[in-house]
Amino acid sequence: MSKRATEFQRKSMSRMYRGKEIFKPLNTGWIDENVACVREWAANIFFCRKGESTIMIDAGYNYDCLAEKMHWLGIDPKSVRHILITHQDTDHVGAVESDSPGLFKKAKLYIGETENRYLTGEVRRKVIYHLYKLPQVTVNNKKQLLKDGETLRIGDIKIHCFLVPGHTWGHMVYLIDDKYLFTGDTIWFGADGGYSFISALAEDNKLAVKSLGILKEKLKKMGVKPLFITGHTGWTDNFEFAFAHKDELCSPFKKKVHDPSAPYDAYDESDDTEEGAKNGFLKGVGYEI
């Protein structure tokens, strides 16, 4: 399923969102000395390395160039034994689906217990304003199910799990070492700050907006101001920028929320090169708000 769904997204979503100024993925490279990302067309997957531990955050598409791009970063796919999954959409789990090449077949998956209901078939994922039901995702990796508010450790890495439902019913975000918040598809960064993610793809937009507000308050209560690292629109260390429009939705049909600096076609990754991946840290957004 993942290969077919990957090709469908690459072709159809490239046409659908071309010129809409919606996706602004990071190119392959390092955000800082601990966190790296790989670009897969319009999406990013991430790696957090600390001491002897390397964890992967989301598993992207069923993407032919993944091993090559990981090599650009000096990361061996065989070294990845732990993968945090924010949610089960094709662009976040493709590399661990049953029809993938199996780069990470020995890795353990960590996924929210509510989100796991998609994988068991208890719930079916619906997109495009609930008009289209996606095929069930199948993975064979060992899984550890996570609860909202749970804290776990993988080697020297501390992970705090937050349930942020809306885009999917069981979407999780992960706060690592109180420094990095991997937000998956909960926040979309426009030129003027963060919005609730793309409206057409949510299970429940009202719930998604409510969840963002709750997440903000939880982080404030914890006294942390992490790097906000999104699945499709880069990263920021500006807390106020990240939540600037938390009560509003990103919509391809409302021009005011678009980002004019986004590429015309985010599925054209011709500028994502090995040379660029090794040429300094990747810049964030949100410094002028």
Automatic annotation (TrEMBL):
Residues 42-232 form the Metallo-beta-lactamase domain. One of its GO terms (molecular function) is hydrolase activity. SUPFAM superfamilies: Metallo-hydrolase/oxidoreductase. InterPro entries: MBL_Glyoxalase_II, Metallo-B-lactamas, RibonucZ/Hydroxyglut_hydro. Pfam families: Lactamase_B (PF00753). Keywords: Hydrolase, Metal-binding, Zinc. This is MBL fold metallo-hydrolase. It comes from Qingrenia yutianensis. The lineage of its organism: Bacteria, Bacillati, Bacillota, Clostridia, Eubacteriales.
